[in-house]
Structure formats: C-alpha cells, structure tokens
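Extended Data, panel c. Modelled sequence:
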Amino acid sequence: QHISFSLGQGEHLTVSGPSGCGKSTLLRLIAGLQAPTEGQIYFAGQKMTAPRPDLAIVFQDYGLFPWKTVEENILLPGRLHGSPLDKDQLASLLDTLGLTAVRHHYPGELSGGQKQRTALGRAMAMQPKLLLLDEPSMGLAPLLVREIFSIIKEINSEGTTVLLVEQNANMALSIADRAYVLEIGKLVKQGPAEELANDDSIRRTYLGVS
C-alpha cells in the first residue's frame, strides 16, 4: 500500500515484518512475477514489464527439480538463458556453498540447509545484478541459519545487490546496510540496519528484547 523505496547498486537491503504482512508479495512484484494494481517498478532506469535474467529470486520452498542433481539444478538457468557457467566457475560456486561433496545428489537426499544452498546456487549461476531472497531462514536450525546468512553476506561483499525479505529480524539486521519494516502492507520503519537493530520498539516487537 503506497510503498516507495529505492535500492542502490551493491547495497544490501532487508525488509522485515510479521508473517502475512506482504513481504513475499513485495518480492514477487519486484521480480516481475506479479503485476502491481497501481504504481511502477523500475530496474536500472527501465520500467519492469516482465521477469529479467539479471534478477534472480530464491523462493521459500526452494523450487528445486527433484529429478535433477544439485549440479544440474544449479546449471539449468544459465543453460536456458544461453550463459552457462564454465567448469571453473561451477567448481568455485559449489565450493563457496559447501556443496562439492553432494554435487551429484538429488534434492530428496539433501538436508534443508543443503536444499537452501542449492537454490541459492541456482540463483547465483545466473550471475544476477540483483538477488531477491524470500525468508531464507525458514525451517532451518539456528546453526544452518547462521551459515546461510554468512553466505549471503559474502555474495553481497562480492558486488551482488541483495534484497532480503526475512522474518528473523535479528539475523537480517546483522548483515544488511539498510532496513525497512513492513506491517499490513505498509512500510512503518526505515533506516540504517544498525540503527533499527537498536530501536527500542523494533527490539521489543521483532527481536524479543524487553
């Protein structure tokens, strides 16, 4: 509802808020998977009218193809768009994601964390300018959440712009540059991530700190 914001090249922005507040819908709108009822979305100065190959999204349910191996899942988008990773690029990405040992395994043989990393690898195989992440901590144990967020931070540090939608505000704010808080479809708080992490109202409502 009347949301307006910008995201700079190389920046890491997080959007947090309670379940059902519209975070995933916002990502789908930006990704071009859902049309806004009003308003416009621009990417690199151009009006968004359809999904773009230089914009990748990782969904909550991973969306992996169960009949393809980890390696095949990761390579598929690049092949479809005519820009597949070469052998060295694939090896480097698998190593970064900690998936080298399971590269020939199928999704049904993977843990939740491995599935999330495979989905992340498939997005990064497109070498996107903008990476959209929808609740990457969903359903993962705390240790795996820290691993995933560490990888996201590394991806951003290497130049990929990141827009992270995340209910786990504590982790999200710890790695982001800026942050927005969404409630019932409206942006109610915004500012530097560190500043919001120290905001008493945010700490009480989203971080569980009295």
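The two ends are 30 Å apart (CA to CA). This feature is highlighted in the accompanying rendering.
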